[in-house]
Model the fold of this input.
Amino acid sequence: MVKTTTIELISKKEFELIRITKDILKAVEESGIQNGVVFAITAHTTTGILVNESLACLEVDIEKKLEELVPTFDSYNHNHFLPSYGAIGCNAPGHLKSMLCGNHAVFPIVDGHVVCGNAQDVYFGEFDGIQRRKVYITVMGE
Amino acid sequence: MVIDVHVHPTGYPQVAQDPESRAFRDRVYQRRTEDALSAPIAMTGKPSGGNGGGNKNFDVLFTRMDHEGIDRFVLLPLDLTTRYGGWIVSNDEIEQIVAAAPDRFIGFASVDPYRPDALEVLEHAFKDQKLAGLKLHPSKQAFYPDDPMMEPIYKKCLEYNKPIMFHSGMSCEPDCLVKYARPVHVEEVAVKYPELRICLAHFGWPWATETAMLCLKYPNIYTDTAAVPMDSPEVFFRHIFTREWGPTWFEHNFADKVMYGSNSPRNHTHGIEKLEMRPDTRAKLMGGNALKWLGMEVK
Done:
């Protein structure tokens, strides 16, 4: 059996880490699936799904390191006029941070429970806010 | 107060939800509907062809405005009745949007100068709908600003003390000849109607120097920063403000003439923030000049 639900988020900053662990647990519980896997998948190309320990200090470190690796202000080829947008694509850093963080996370489900380590939380990473965003939670199993 | 004087509300709920209205914009901008639907959501307005994703409310928009520190948006419609048989955004839609959040929006009118009832439309917009100014797009509406047929429209704006926002310079839209929007075509208007407050949008790019000449020469001519960058906003604005214009031109000559306008403030404000200027000049750029141009200045 496969069940997919969609959660909608509105980021409030250009860079933001939003915890979605509870949404995943809820989707698994409501699916009724006892054994299988659950995926959290972002619908966007300037966002990411991250698994990490939910500490404010680490959130700052993640933001700082990603900014060092992919500075907001730099000479990106994507900064040019895109006729289909009627504007420039000046969100290259969002695309590259998205690439570094990946578009999904996956966890096993055993006896109706998501199996994850004590320190593990799931974040939706916004790298091109402020926007309305979607995350698909797909529960697969029996 | 921070005012963005150049916003196209095509992605707003009062506009974007209507399938007929969306189809009209797709036709005018020669886009396939499936392309339009897959275009990025116009949270804060895009160049006027944008259809956006059809936002249901203003939650994202207001969050972004607050994040960018923008108090008010000036919303621009466009009447293309005689050339295309409709409006990109109508005066009625602008009136509805402003009514939904009068503390965040300042609504402008538009009128197709070729329509026989142009003056009636404008009279209704100013007198009944209380719209705050007039948006004209010489390229898309295919007229020269110094055409004598425009004079009754300018007189109507003067009668109601309303400013005019002229699209000026390049437009990337189809069926949109740039020749109509050359800044110098507004010179005669500025001479004949010295009390008429005029904005030549987008720096009149690529005629930014011509725009500078007109701003220097005529007290009633302003410009805005809603130019479409071809590289990052910070690189583009540094180029405009310090290379296309001499490095001291802005602060020494045009501190009272340039208004913050974005088309869409996403990313645009970064380019403005990176420019070095005195705090009082920045305050004028970000809102003080707009209050003066809009006729809302508290004296």
